[in-house]
């Protein structure tokens, strides 16, 4: 084979480099080859951590006979959905239109111009429960291409027209982007309590979380529940309680790695006890930030301690498992572990009771070993192939908590001696932006708790902040070239497509959070540059798009119509992220034009927020923040201790929605690249806090109690 995948940035593509299938990466060359040979294109979409992608690869793509048939009758293209979400989104929409469902691996058949005419997901090597064998599918598609070309063309045209209609729907949902202040109309708060009520109806009141199996962490939605729950509006108490229950349940379940931190992608069961073991950066970046905020907002001391522990351990897990040379973070850990040459899902993480007891005995647990095992619900967490996950499924009292913390390091040391899952080392810009935001906010939460004497011992807040700084420097050094952000890097070299809207906005989100945590204005200036670049590159004739540059194949597949998809998946949509950074930027800069653009981008959530809140969670959180003002807190002064005390007070009183900026040391009353800080001085040897909304500020105060009172009185 040509070995075209061997040097790709994507670990998923490199995993298939030695297949007998003559794979091509997605690009014009592959489709030109299909035109030259007059054969259809087979596009296989997946990602490195995907268990069923590995299964289909072993069953079909490593099979010589299947590969020979593919090579003779098709041009085969391998796509990493994480590297090319633009490709994945188009062909996932086609797959869902044809089959009513989607998933990975995704198997798509197109014309040489990129239009889909048949699609599915996983196909087994033999017919199974009504699902045709992959070889049967290949033969049927090849026969249709050869003998019924008119039917193939008709199908492709119909699917492209359907996708074009869906894109028109996105355009109507987002709306035309008029940048005149007030042009979008007043934002209505009515959707927020309605969304909370809708989420409440979806809650699993027995096991926690939303809906049934499979059960995913609803991260963008939890951001809304925490933000709105802290704001005091109608339904805010219910929102906060929903967040409390869900966050505690997840932290006490097998979804969360009870030994070293980090969250799995989802659980296959309703009780959160049997994970699908892949661990994704985008999940853990969001959840790290959520637990950091929850550490201030949770009503019970035990919950706040739990939130701090999860924040501490998840930050440590990022550093231990996903950190790459140079400071960026890798995309994921695999769901499978290779043991004795065979891939086994979750093999690193599962235990038998006998294995647990033996490790504890060697560690000297003695009679406490039985008590440790009694903490775990091994029966509920039992896997089909034997062994169990580490699942509590309930709250622990303080003595139980200490018992677990005393002996879990021995279990982790034993687990570290096992074979470990493979890692996808590619660095994705937008996900790293979310990780920077999570680490920056976690550093603040951990430092605040440390100062208050409320957190676990040895909180690594400085370490978390340094991880955030290093990741930000990596992105700006490696991914950002001449005003263009590249989406992916590998081994310290950026390559491939320009970043999507979600990348520009995600990195800006992280840089704004890092500025708020450090007061270092270089991060603000870099975030501002990305926001302005995104505005220029992703808005054309008043239409927001997810990509700045589209390929001819994707354009043809969508009927030449494109618009940004405003709805969240497991990570927030580019539209919602961009609206959020625009609100933040307007708060820092006072730009009414960017505030107006943010409001225009939030129009869709007023339509879908109450009907499909899980698809609009991040935008709902931005809307809640925007309706709050957001309130802006500027703190300046030469008394560093007082500056930090005022900031801690503001973060505690203002919740996740408050936008903060500070300057310490001499010259704090002078010029600044951040308009919110300009001309906001303080007497020598003191500090002042300015609480503002829309750059209009209340009387500056130097007393933290007075600042808390201003927040409580909804000033300014």
Please provide a brief summary of the model.
With 716 residues, the chain is α+β, with helices and mostly antiparallel strands.
3D architecture notes:
This protein is α+β, with helices and mostly antiparallel strands and 716 residues long. A five-stranded mixed sheet has the order 1-3-2-4-5, with helices on both faces. The relative contact order is 0.10.
Q: Determine the strand fraction and express it as a percent band.
A: 5-15%
Shape summary: globular
Contiguous low-pLDDT stretches (5 residues minimum) are none
Count all strands and give the number: 22
Q: What fraction, in percent, of the residue positions are helical?
A: 40-55%
- Overall mean pLDDT stands at 92
Largest beta sheet: strand ordering = 1-3-2-4-5
Spatial extent as radius of gyration = 26 Å
- First and last CA, distance: 68 Å
User: How large is the count of helical segments?
Assistant: 26
Major beta-sheet overview: 5 strands, mixed
Structural class: alpha+beta
């Amino acid at each position: 084979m040509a070995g075209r995948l061997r040097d790709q940035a994507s670990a998923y593509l490199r995993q298939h480099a030695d297949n007998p299938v003559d794979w091509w990466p997605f690009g014009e060359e592959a489709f030109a080859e299909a035109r030259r040979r007059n054969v259809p294109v087979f596009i296989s979409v997946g990602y490195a951590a995907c268990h069923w992608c590995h299964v289909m690869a072993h069953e079909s793509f490593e099979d010589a006979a299947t590969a020979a048939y593919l090579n003779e009758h098709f041009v085969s293209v391998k796509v990493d959905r994480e590297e090319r979400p633009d490709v994945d989104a188009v062909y996932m929409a086609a797959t869902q239109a044809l089959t009513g469902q989607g998933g990975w691996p995704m198997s798509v058949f197109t014309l040489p111009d990129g239009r889909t005419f048949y699609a599915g997901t996983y196909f087994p090597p033999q017919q199974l429960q009504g699902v045709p064998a992959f070889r049967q599918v290949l033969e049927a598609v090849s026969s249709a291409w050869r003998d019924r070309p008119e039917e193939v063309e008709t199908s492709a045209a119909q699917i492209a027209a359907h996708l074009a209609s869906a894109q028109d729907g996105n355009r109507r949902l987002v709306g035309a982007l008029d940048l005149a202040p007030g042009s979008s109309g007043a934002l209505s708060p009515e959707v927020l309590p309605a969304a909370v009520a809708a989420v409440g109806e979806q809650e699993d009141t027995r096991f926690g979380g939303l809906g049934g199996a499979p059960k995913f962490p609803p991260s963008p939605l939890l951001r809304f529940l925490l933000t709105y729950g802290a704001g005091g509006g109608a339904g805010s108490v219910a929102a906060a309680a929903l967040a409390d229950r869900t966050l505690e349940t997840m932290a006490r379940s097998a979804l969360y790695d009870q030994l070293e931190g980090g969250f799995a992608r989802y659980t296959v069961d309703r009780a959160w006890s049997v994970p699908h073991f892949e661990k994704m950066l985008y999940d853990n970046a969001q959840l790290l930030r959520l637990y950091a905020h929850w550490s201030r907002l949770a009503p019970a001391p035990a919950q706040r301690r739990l939130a701090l522990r999860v924040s501490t351990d998840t930050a440590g897990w990022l550093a231990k498992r996903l950190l790459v040379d140079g400071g960026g973070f890798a995309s994921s850990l695999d769901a499978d572990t290779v043991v004795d040459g065979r891939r086994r899902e979750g093999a690193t993480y599962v235990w038998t009771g006998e294995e647990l007891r033996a490790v504890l005995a060697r560690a000297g647990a003695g009679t406490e070993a039985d008590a440790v095992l009694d903490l775990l619900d091994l029966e509920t967490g039992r896997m089909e192939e034997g062994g169990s996950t580490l699942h509590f499924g309930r709250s622990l009292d303080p003595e139980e908590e200490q018992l677990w913390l005393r002996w879990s390091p021995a279990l982790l040391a034993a687990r570290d001696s096992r074979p470990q899952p493979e890692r996808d080392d590619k660095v994705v810009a937008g996900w790293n932006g979310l990780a920077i935001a999570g680490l920056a906010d976690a550093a603040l939460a951990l430092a605040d708790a440390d100062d208050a004497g409320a957190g676990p011992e040895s909180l690594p807040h400085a370490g978390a902040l340094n991880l955030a700084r290093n990741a930000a420097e990596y992105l700006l050094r490696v991914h950002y070239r001449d005003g263009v952000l590249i989406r992916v890097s590998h081994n310290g070299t950026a390559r491939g497509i320009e970043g999507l809207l979600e990348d520009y906005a995600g990195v800006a989100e992280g840089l704004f959070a890092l500025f708020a945590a450090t007061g270092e204005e270089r991060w603000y200036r870099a975030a501002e540059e990305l926001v302005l670049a995104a505005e220029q590159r992703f808005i054309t004739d008043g239409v927001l798009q997810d990509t700045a540059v589209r390929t001819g194949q994707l354009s043809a597949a969508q009927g030449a119509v494109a618009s940004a998809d405003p709805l969240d998946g497991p990570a927030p949509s580019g539209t919602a992220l961009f609206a959020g950074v625009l609100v933040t930027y307007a708060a820092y800069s006072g730009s009414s034009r960017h505030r107006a653009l943010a409001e225009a981008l939030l129009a869709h959530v007023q339509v879908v927020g109450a009907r499909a809140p899980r698809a609009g969670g991040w935008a709902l959180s931005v809307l809640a923040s925007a309706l709050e003002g957001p309130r802006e807190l500027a703190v300046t002064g030469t008394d560093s201790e007082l500056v930090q005390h005022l900031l801690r007070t503001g973060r505690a009183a203002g919740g996740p929605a408050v936008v903060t900026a500070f300057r310490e040391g001499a010259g704090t009353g002078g010029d600044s690249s951040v308009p919110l800080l300009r001309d906001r001085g303080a007497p020598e040897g003191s500090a002042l806090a300015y609480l503002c909304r829309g750059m209009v500020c209340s009387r500056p105060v130097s007393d933290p109690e007075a600042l808390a009172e201003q927040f409580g009185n909804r000033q300014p």
